[in-house]
Amino acid sequence: MVSINSNELIALIASFMWPLTRILGFIAIAPPIGNNGVPVQVKLTLGVFLALIVAPTIPPLSHVDLISIAGIAVLMQQLIIGLAMGFVVRVMFAGVEMAGEVIGLTMGLGFATFFDPQTRGRSSAISQFLVIIATLVFLSLNIHLAMFEALINSFKSIPISTSLHMGFSVQRLAIWGEEIFKVGMLISMPIVAALLITNIALGILTRAAPQLNLFGIGFPITIAVGFLMLSLILPYLLLPLENIFQHSLDAINNLGSPLPLSPTKQP
C-alpha cells in the first residue's frame, strides 16, 4: 500500500502549482490563445495539461511551503515571468495593429472603426484585417507550437527558485516595447509612401486647376490607392511576418540572459 504524508502531498501540489502559474500567466496574455473570445475553460485546461507535462521535469524546492510567504512570493514571481513572456508575443501583434491604424488614417478610413474582440476596445477595419492575416500566418507556420516549446524550455533558462531576482532581464523586456513602432512602420511604410505620393499629386492637380473639388475627388482616390496597395503587398507579407514572429521567439528564449554590455569608447 502506498502511503503519502501531508508534507509529501504539499510538495506535490507546490511542484504542480508553480509551473501552472507561469503557464497560465503566459496563456492569459499571449495571442491568439489569450484572446478574450477564447473560453476560460479552454485556457485553464490547456494550462493544466502543459503543467502536468512540465511538473515532473522540474526539481522540487526544498523547505518551501506553498501557503507561506516564500511560497506566495514564488507564485507571484512565476506569474510575472509568464506575463512577461506573453507580453513579448503580444507586442508583435500590437505592432501589426499599429500598422493598420497608420494605414487607415493615411488613406482616410480612420472613421471606420469596429469592436475588437481581442482587446474589447475600438479598432480600425484595416487594423483588424491585418491582425486576422497575421493570426492565420501565425497558425499556418506552427509558431504557436514553437511558442509553447519556448515556454517549456524557459523552465531551464529561468528556473523556479526562491531568489528575489525575477530571473529575466527587465531591461531587455522594456527595450522590447520599441518593437511595436518598428513592426508598425515596417508593414505600413510602402502604403504610406504610395499615399504620400498620391497626396502630392492631388496637391499639384488642385494647384493647377483650382476649380476642382479636392474633398470630392481626394477621398475616393486615396481610399482606392490604399486598397490597391494593400492588395499588392499581401502576397509579400509572409516573409516579414515570419521574421517578426521568429524574432519574438528568439526574444522569449533570450529573456533569461542579460543584455550584452556596450563597448566603451577609448579616449
From TrEMBL:
In the UniProt record, does the keyword Lipid biosynthesis occur? Answer: no
Q: Its domain of life?
A: Bacteria
Signal peptide limits? none
State its location(s).
Cell membrane; Bacterial flagellum basal body
User: What does the record say about its membrane topology?
Assistant: Multi-pass membrane protein
* Transmembrane spans: 9-30, 42-59, 66-93, 99-117, 129-152, 183-205, 217-239
UniProt cross-references to InterPro entries, sorted A to Z: FliR (IPR006303), T3SS_IM_R (IPR002010)
Tell me the Pfam families matching this sequence. Bac_export_1 (PF01311)
Q: Which UniProt keywords apply?
A: Bacterial flagellum, Cell membrane, Cell projection, Cilium, Flagellum, Membrane, Transmembrane, Transmembrane helix
Q: Which family does it belong to?
A: Belongs to the FliR/MopE/SpaR family.
Question: What is known about what this protein does?
Answer: Role in flagellar biosynthesis.
Protein name as it appears in the record: Flagellar biosynthetic protein FliR
Species source reads Undibacterium flavidum
